[in-house]
Amino acid sequence: MLNPWLDLPFDVPYLLPIDRESLSRLTGHSRQSINLESIPEPFIGNPETATVLLLNLNPGDSPDDSQSHANPAFREALLCNLRHAQQDYPFYALNPEFRWTACAKWWTTRLRQLLKHPALERQKIARLLCVIEWFPYHSKVASLPRTMVCPSQQYCFDIVRKAIGSKKVIIGMRARKRWADVDARLGEVPYLKNPRSPYITPRNAAESLFSQIVEALK
Into how many domains does the chain fold? Predict the structure, then answer.
């Protein structure tokens, strides 16, 4: 599947043409939970060069996103990411320039143990780490349907399927059942022990898996 995110509109609503019909069929809380005024984040990082692939559920919906997504530099980082364009920090949440954004605050907290590790360097982590979201639009997780919602999801699903059996380390953060529905093999990859608190730590990932992550990010 060709990258559908090249067709994202440059202004609100940030909704791909191929997803318009599917999302219009959603009703009630499911429809209300999706924020199309924030730029979608179906993935963060470069999936081609990443050595560690995280499987997540959805980009959250923070009240602070409106400010950060209007910031020219952060907005450009988001759009470059969607185009797979080169950046100094492909995992832009780790770019010190964006530390004030809700995105950076969320991810630097979850990745704190990696960022503090003496064998790892922040910019290299940003080059070798990639997260793939099951659902691409900013939303409230509790209201998301359990099955595939819109056609653009298939692009990220293809990225993950391609990584299965490669040398990439694949770790599930959340949504094991949803990812297993994408491909049964994704139900067998290691997942964090506490999906409600998806911190990448030795305790939450187990010592051996955390060590494997560190080695892959060196």
Answer: 1
* Residue 29 is assigned to a structural domain of this protein: no
Give 186-206 pLDDT, tens digit per residue: 999 999 999 999 999 999 999
Contact indicator for 124, 151 with CB cutoff of 8 Å: no
Structural domain of residue 49, as residue ranges? 40-217
Cβ-based burial of 147 (10 A; exposed 0-12, middle 13-18, buried ≥19): exposed
Q: How many helices (H) and strands (E) does the chain have?
A: 11, 4
Write the pLDDT tens digit of every residue in 106-148.
999 999 999 999 999 999 999 999 999 999 999 987 778 889 9
CA-CA distance, 151 to 1, in Å (whole number)?
10
Establish if 33 belongs to a structural domain: no
* pTM greater than 0.90: yes
Among candidate residues 198, 194, 195, 191, the one with its CA nearest the CA of residue 172: 191
**Is 67 a domain residue?**
yes
DSSP reduced 3-state for 211:
helix
For residue 18, with 0-12 CB atoms within 10 Å meaning exposed, 13-18 middle and 19 or more buried, which class applies?
middle
Q: Residues in the chain with pLDDT < 70?
A: none
Examine residue 79 and state whether it is found in any structural domain, yes or no: yes
